[in-house]
Design a protein that fits this description.
The structure holds two protein chains of two kinds. Chain A has helices spanning 2-12, 14-49, 144-147, 169-175, 210-217, 237-240, 248-255, 260-270, 280-321, 324-332, 337-375, 385-409, 413-418, and strands spanning 56-60, 68-69, 72-73, 83-84, 100-115, 118-127, 131-135, 138-142, 152-155, 164-168, 182-185, 188-197, 206-209, 222-223, 225-230, 274-278. By secondary structure, chain A is an alpha+beta fold. In chain A, a hairpin with a 2-residue loop joins strand 2 and strand 3 (72-73). The longest helix of chain A has 42 residues, at 280-321. Chain A is elongated, with a radius of gyration of 32 Å. By secondary structure, chain B is of the alpha+beta class. Chain B has a six-stranded mixed β-barrel with strand order 2-3-8-5-7-6, surrounded by four helices. Classes of the chains: A alpha+beta, B alpha+beta. The interface between A and B is large, with 73 and 78 residues.
């Protein structure tokens, strides 16, 4: 009888059920989409923040001091230590390898530039542009094009295996020609594939493939610095602690959290004779920005959950209120409070489950849409969340119906049937 | 509004007649509006509650949407300079450059001058020495990890007296030493000498600076000490200008005009990164706001439609008593508009409170109430309530009053 009551109620009152179900679906859709966005926003913004540049730098351990003013390196090339280019793939071998979005090695070489009969001393910077590194099964493409996304080239980016170079825009202006085709650097004739504009020291330099710089310097495999761009967790009090003072399990927890310091330590361990450090200007501030945005979206998600819960309760309250006469009839026929409440709760559960499942699907689609249109990457929601979302939908629907159901069961059948309330 | 109507009821018949002669329609209209709200307090209250929540959420979201740029921009200013002013071709800037930059900024940012040379240590090692204004650097470059800042400019050098430990060094100047420079120059943190073009300066490390970048290899002096020793004026001014990209560009152009001997250029990675992150955050916020406002509006719609639908008896009686379609529409529309306006105003106040709370919790700064949002919220609320009142009415109008009154 109970099952039949519920079944018939769904079969005969399609319009009302569809309305209430639609409200639940909509509420769950919004809630799901917002939860998906909130859980993923940190990662997305973190990637956007990587456009500000590398947040970690690896230097040789026994390096001498940098002597550099305004992009001009005054350090003698024989001075100081180098890293080995062959060690670089190890960067993608550390514990947090998937958090390393890109890296770029640099090798500044002081050279003598001859052009149109004039000679001047400039810095030639060897680096990767978009170098493909074979890493086990898959290739990893890295270099300044991803690490320094704001570098702009008019012309073409050189190939990493070529002998083409980029000339900084200020240097090109000093050479007195808008379109520099070819330059002679330390006796080598090099083709210029484009003019580089960075707004930084590189505007006064020549940027060349790393192999070419090593050849000019006469030190195959030498790298002066590696700039690493990594997704990190905002530094907190725990992250700031000195790892040397930690005991076993606490140290493991610190080591396995992507703090800038922890990743720097792992890089130091991975590359022989190196010292990795966070670039505080980038690393420290992105933590602050990230925390703010995550906090904001979290609070807004709470607001979204609240609004959708309210919409669901409003719809349920209206749906039940409209069925006073039915309640009156049931009670007049001898149904107890419990029986009436049970029918309504069973219906609410069914509605919540159906609406919740549909809403979860729609919310996942919506989140994907938001991810595509705003971040150009997908926001996916783990299917594990489905039971959680369904449980929330049932609870909210119950909570929303509770007041209306209580009023319905305490209703005097006489008034209800006469349509007076 | 209700006062005249109710008074007329309780006063003498003469007053009643007079008032009816004046404007019977208006008074009856108002009375019906007020009584409808008072008699069915529960339902009216729940409709009003839905309206208040929707308006509050909408207000808070719009407020945050407008304000979040300013809030996040402030966070991004912690990245330091977004404009760099350099003397053309490495030349020094004019002596009054900092004052000129300050007058262009007029409080819209902070600027710090830097002068640099390559000096030699007593064992002949080359090292970059910079002169700067420590007070300004502290405000500009928050990420510098400094163990102890040297006391400001040593105009009278009186505070050096305590450092004059050794005889033969009449003056010792306080220096901020980069961590790598410290290891190379004075690992034991002792006073050391630097020479530049034959002039020697005696320095005492006051503290160390660590940034992970070029600063670690440098030694910083206060600008006055630096100029007195090396005779080199600042060649670079780092400027952190507040405001939107357009405002920053405008400041940059003004700087270029004010100091013709210098180039003003943007720090592109900071400006572009800021623009990207702000744009994406705002877009996400907008999407969230649209979703939330839509949900809230639908909540109002369903509550209100239920309320109006519930009153089909009132509607039927009025119609049976000869009310015209126009009057009925007007009655329910006025009721909806009154509800929408009341809800919007209360919701606006609540929403401003929510936005302010979020601002305090998340950004540690007040979110300024945007009263420009009020008309928007007001109009939106009234539109939603009107739709949710008119929709059921237009459905009911097709039904004969007798059918409704019989409860079918």
């Amino acid at each position: 009888m109970f099952v039949r009551l519920v079944y018939e109620s769904f079969r005969r009152q399609k319009r009302r059920k569809v309305l209430a179900g639609a409200a639940i679906t909509l509420g769950v859709t919004v809630a799901t989409a917002m939860i998906a966005v909130a859980t993923d926003i940190g990662d997305k913004i973190n990637r956007e923040l990587r456009t500000i540049g590398a947040n970690l730098v690896v230097t040789p351990q026994e390096d001498s001091l940098d002597v550099e003013i305004g992009g001009v390196n005054l350090k003698p090339p024989s001075d100081g230590a180098y890293l080995n280019e062959a060690d670089l793939p190890k960067i993608k071998d550390i514990f947090w390898r998937n958090n390393i979005t890109s890296f770029a090695p640099t090798l500044p070489v002081p050279v003598r530039l001859e052009h149109a009969g004039k000679q001047q001393d400039v810095t030639l910077l060897g680096t990767y542009f978009a170098k493909r590194l074979p890493l086990g099964g898959e290739d990893f493409t890295t270099g300044v094009r991803s690490t320094y996304a704001w570098w702009k080239v008019s012309g073409a980016w050189p190939d990493d295996n070529s002998r083409n170079v980029l000339v900084g825009e200020k240097l090109a202006r000093r050479l007195g020609e808008t379109a520099v085709e070819e330059i002679t650097v330390s006796g080598r004739r090099l083709r210029v594939s484009g003019i580089l504009s960075t707004g930084g020291a590189e505007d006064d330099q020549i940027v060349a493939p790393l192999a070419l710089a090593q050849e000019i310097l006469g030190k195959p495999g030498a790298v002066r610095r590696v700039y690493v761009s990594a997704l990190t967790k905002p530094e907190d009090a725990f992250g700031r602690r000195d790892p040397k003072s930690m005991s076993g399990p606490i140290y493991d927890r610190w080591y396995c959290t992507p703090y800038p310091q922890a990743i720097a330590l792992q890089l130091t361990e991975a590359i022989p004779h190196s010292h990795a450090e966070q670039i505080r200007q980038v690393a420290q501030n992105e933590g602050a920005v990230l925390t703010r945005i995550e906090g904001l979206i979290f609070l807004i998600t709470l607001a979204a959950l609240f609004a959708s819960a309210l919409a669901v309760s409003a719809a349920m309250a209206t749906a039940i209120f409209e069925r006073r006469a039915e309640v009156g009839l049931m009670k007049a026929l001898g149904a107890g409070k419990l029986a009436v409440a049970a029918v309504f709760f069973a219906e609410a559960t069914l509605l919540a489950l159906i609406g919740g499942a549909v809403g979860f699907g729609a919310g996942a689609l919506l989140a994907r849409q938001i991810g595509q249109s705003i971040f150009n990457s997908q926001i996916s929601i783990p299917p594990v969340l489905l039971p959680v979302i369904l449980a929330i939908a049932v609870i909210v629907t119950f909570a929303g119906s509770a007041a209306a159901i209580r009023r319905a069961v305490t209703l005097d059948p006489v008034f209800a049937l006469r349509g007076e309330l | 509004m209700s006062a005249p109507g109710l008074q007329n009821m309780s006063h003498a018949a003469r007053d009643l007649a007079a008032s009816r002669a004046h404007g019977p329609h208006t008074s009856m209209f108002l009375r019906m509006l007020v009584r409808a709200a008072v008699l069915r307090r529960g339902r009216a209250a729940s409709a009003l509650f839905a309206m208040v929540v929707a308006a509050a959420v909408a207000t808070a979201m719009l407020n945050l949407y407008v304000d979040v740029q300013a809030k996040l921009r402030r966070e991004f200013r912690n990245y330091g300079a977004n404009i760099i002013v350099v003397g053309r071709d490495g030349a020094s800037l004019p002596a009054n450059a900092v004052a000129q930059v300050d007058s262009v900024l007029a409080g819209r940012g902070i600027a710090a001058p830097f002068a640099m040379i390559v000096a030699r240590t007593s064992d002949g090692q080359a090292i970059v020495v910079a002169g700067t204004d420590f007070d300004r650097v502290r405000q500009l470059d928050h990420w510098w990890q400094v163990s102890g800042w040297p006391a400001g400019d040593s105009k009278d050098n009186s505070h050096f007296s305590q450092n004059q430990g050794e005889v033969g060094h009449p003056e010792s100047y306080a220096a901020l030493v980069g961590v790598r420079a410290l290891a190379a120059v004075t690992p034991k943190n002792q006073p050391f000498d630097l020479s530049f073009q034959g002039r020697t300066i005696h320095l005492t490390p006051a503290g160390t600076v660590q940034t992970g970048a070029a600063e670690d290899s440098r030694i910083y002096l206060s600008l006055a000490d630096f100029v007195a020793w090396a005779g080199v004026e600042p060649s670079t001014i780092e400027v952190a200008a507040n405001g939107s990209p357009e405002e920053v560009t405008a400041i940059m152009n003004q700087l270029a005009q004010a100091i013709p001997a210098a180039d003003a250029r943007p720090v592109r990675q900071i400006m572009e990164g800021e623009a990207r992150v702000l744009g994406k955050t705002r877009a996400t916020l907008l999407a969230a706001a649209a979703l939330i406002i839509l949900t809230a509006a639908l909540c109002v719609l369903s509550t209100l439609m239920g309320w109006v639908f519930d009153r089909r008896r009132d509607f039927a009686i009025m119609k049976a008593l000869g009310a015209s379609g126009r009057l009925l529409n007007g009655f329910f529309a006025a009721e909806a508009a009154a509800l929408g306006a009341t809800g919007a105003v209360i919701g606006f106040v609540v929403g401003i409170g929510i936005a302010a709370w979020i601002g305090r919790v998340n950004f540690h700064a007040a979110v300024v109430p945007r009263f420009s949002v009020l008309p928007l919220v007001l109009a939106g609320s009234m539109a939603v309530t009107l739709v949710s009142a008119i929709l059921p009415i237009s459905l009911l109008r097709r039904v004969q009053p007798a059918v409704i009154l019989r409860g079918e």
